[in-house]
Specification:
alpha/beta, Nucleotidyltransferase, domain 5
């Protein structure tokens, strides 16, 4: 199976729609056989689900993610494990061990709110201003 993690500098990147890289893990018999970091080439929110599907990904570990992206992943048949932070490799190890702490209700809903001070979702680093991951 192929497992993807939103990726930045060894960590789980926290905003799915703005991820510029995924780390893709090839897993066989519960063990990582190989991994590679791939660039999204500027693909955004909706296109990322197709990008992952075309790479043969069956499951995704990520930080925060909006409802539209969740629906696109579900339609692509990709299982979602959101609300994860920390080391990408550590998250995959936890997933394989059956101990991954994730939030099945994760939702980055800042797109449904007025953009206020401190919210830089269209800039370089993502700052949800406290909205991400909260319903």
């Amino acid at each position: 199976m192929k497992l993807a993690v939103t990726y930045l500098n060894g960590e789980v990147f926290q905003h799915f729609g703005h991820t510029q890289q995924f780390k893709i893990y090839d897993v066989c018999d519960g063990k990582v056989q190989s991994s590679e970091v791939v660039d999204t080439n500027g693909s955004g929110h909706g296109a990322l689900a197709s990008f992952l599907k075309n790479m043969g990904v069956e499951a995704l570990i990520c930080g925060d993610i909006g409802g539209g992206a969740q629906a696109a992943l579900a339609q692509a048949g990709i299982e979602l494990f959101g609300g994860v932070s920390g080391s990408a490799d550590g998250a995959v190890e936890a997933y394989l061990a059956g101990t991954l702490g994730y939030d099945p209700q994760v939702r980055c809903d800042h797109h449904d709110r007025e953009h206020g001070e401190g919210h830089g979702c269209h800039g370089g680093d993502h700052d949800c201003g406290g909205y991400c991951g909260k319903n």
